[in-house]
Design brief:
Blueprint lengths: L32 H27 L4 H15 L3 H10 L35 H16 L3 E8 L2 E8 L3 H6 L2 E2 L5 H8 L3 E3 L10 H8 L5 E8 L5 E9 L8 H41 L2
Antiparallel strand pairs: 1-2, 1-6, 2-3, 4-5, 5-6
Helix pairs in contact: 1-2, 1-3, 2-8, 3-8, 4-8
Length: 291
Amino acid sequence: MNQLSQPPAEEGCPATGPDAGPGSGSGSSRWPQNDLDQRNRLYGHLGVARAQEVLVKRYGFTSTVEAFALLRDVSQRCNIKLATLADAVVRTPAPDHDAELWFPNRPRYGPPGLPFLPGGRDRHTSQGLVLKAVLHRVLTITQTPMGNVQLAESGRLRLARHTGLNKYFTDFFAFVDASTTLCSQAAAERRQVTVRDVATAPVFDEASRHAVLQANSRAAHSVPLVNRAGVPLGMVSSHHEQPLAGFTRAQLAALWQTGVDSGRWLSWHWNTVVLDALEQLHATARNGTRN
């Protein structure tokens, strides 16, 4: 895919929710809560299960239980989400056989500046605080109290932070892997995307339309959080109680810059904090399996 070349969005782009899943084809717009819970448990466990299998094969653990204990321990010690660590284990090339270090001679650098993030430098190293500030910044620009942040993990978008959205919405969109969603379209096309009116957008499937409308959202806007190569590492979206007429060029430019700044911070976090966690996991596994 080509690197993004323009900051402003094109208005009026379509968006839909997941095109398959619990309740699909049932004639009902609302998914049963049990189905949502089952899907979210499944998606939540899949990435961890894959990482467990990788670790068992790589380090010769006697069971996936031992591998899970290592993942959980390193996740807690390094203060990163278990899902993030598991995703990193699965998609990061394996260390050389018997290598003491997974990432020898890895360059280290401090976190990039975030103009919209108040407080001391220590705040710049906490993903939770950064995502909270990113969401606040976008909702301030778009002038709405409702929104969410998603991170790209395990081939899908995982809901990482939200405000003003009810439980059914956050359960329904806890994981997004369909190609016909507002956030996935913006991610795939590496640009901002606006849905002016959820109620009349013909491309919505009825389950997704219901999930958005029942949260009192009639319009939405998504911004990709891109690294220096223009690759989206996450998404931030605003939701609006009334249909949107559109945003000014100044708003769109500010939103785009927020996505660029945030994406570069996420890239730093991956290349520093997450890789530090993988290094610690590797060292612990090697020491624990030596006899």
